[in-house]
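Summary of Year 1 activities. Much of the first year was spent building the evaluation harness for sequence design. The harness presents a backbone, in tokenized form, and records the residue chosen at every position. We chose the following record to illustrate the format because it has been used consistently in internal testing since the harness was completed.
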């Protein structure tokens, strides 16, 4: 029989020597709690470089650790138990509310200087709907909402990017049905997203071999409009004209055929510093094929850095002890790099 595992509450606070990372495991019905305790149980991956402040359900994390027979470290981390805030919720609403309040309190902790950045596990939009949360479209929009509460004077229009080694993909649209992509895409949206991408690249991907930054922009249509479609002409090209004027030292391609853009790509030596995808699957299929569970999502445009796993809640394998924590570990490494630690 596995001994009872106790989750200690060793207090940690951000310091100049060792940053504190706010970690939200995600939905309690998914694999987030499992990969969280698996990360905790390997302090060699995080304890030398940061402390962890976890916002989640203490009971769920304790049960996961006990079921896996994991011994958790005695120091370097702390848990803020979200369950106390939603005791009266129905079982269906409870899952989404825990995820919602965890994010709310994590952002508040960052705003108060109690943490340096945010690391998130997976949440389900279906669970947010069941909980009647005010925002159900996903992490990015929820974090923008909470950021505006604490940083009301700062613009907050976030964008979603994914990184693996030197391979970077920016999504112009996120969780939008394919038929609605054209209605969402505007030259203004493209310019806004690429402004943030260029700022990120200049700060985090220094020029290599004396070359200027190179950004590949993927076309919306097959063959990048050659056989039909007008998004390239009416949306992408006007935006690129503005961007080339604003950033004369950055090379932006004309719209490229997306089916050929990733052929033979080596993530360690990509020909471009970043690829700009018009819609979700256009960018994430090649990213996940090349990176597997080592892809990391990052959010651009928030007043703080946030990284995340690149997978979903995987409720079909939750509780089976087989979830891989590689994406969470990689996301933590990326986050520490972004905050300069």
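For this record, the design step produced the sequence shown next.
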């Amino acid at each position: 029989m596995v001994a009872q595992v106790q989750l200690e509450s060793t207090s940690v606070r951000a310091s100049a020597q060792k940053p504190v990372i706010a970690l939200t495991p995600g939905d309690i019905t998914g694999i987030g709690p499992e990969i969280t305790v698996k990360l905790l149980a390997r302090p060699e991956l995080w304890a030398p470089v940061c402390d962890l402040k976890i916002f989640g359900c203490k009971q769920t994390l304790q049960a996961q650790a006990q079921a896996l027979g994991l011994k958790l470290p005695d120091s370097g981390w702390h848990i803020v138990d979200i369950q106390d805030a939603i005791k009266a919720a129905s079982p269906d609403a409870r899952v989404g509310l825990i995820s919602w309040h965890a994010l709310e309190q994590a952002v508040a902790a960052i705003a108060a200087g109690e943490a340096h950045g945010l690391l998130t596990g997976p949440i389900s939009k279906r669970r947010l709907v069941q909980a009647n949360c005010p925002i159900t479209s996903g992490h990015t929009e929820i974090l923008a909402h909470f950021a505006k509460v604490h940083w009301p004077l700062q613009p907050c229009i976030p964008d979603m990017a994914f990184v693996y080694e030197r391979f970077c993909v920016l999504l112009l649209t996120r969780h939008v049905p394919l038929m609605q992509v054209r209605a969402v895409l505007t030259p203004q949206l493209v310019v806004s997203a690429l402004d943030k991408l260029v700022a990120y690249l200049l700060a985090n991907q220094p020029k290599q071999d004396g070359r200027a930054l190179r950004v590949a922009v993927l076309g919306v249509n097959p063959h990048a409009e050659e056989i039909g479609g007008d998004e390239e002409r009416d949306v992408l090209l006007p935006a690129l004209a503005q961007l080339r004027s604003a950033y004369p030292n950055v090379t932006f391609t004309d719209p490229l055929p997306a089916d050929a853009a990733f052929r033979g790509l080596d993530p360690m030596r990509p020909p471009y510093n970043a690829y700009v995808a018009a819609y979700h699957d256009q960018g994430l299929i090649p990213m996940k094929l090349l990176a597997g569970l080592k892809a990391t999502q990052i959010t651009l445009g928030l007043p703080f850095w946030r990284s995340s796993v690149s997978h979903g809640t995987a409720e079909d394998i939750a509780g089976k002890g087989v979830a891989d924590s590689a994406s969470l570990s990689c996301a933590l490494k990326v986050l520490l790099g972004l905050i300069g630690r």
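The radius of gyration is 21 Å. Quantitative recovery figures across the full test set are reported in Table 2.
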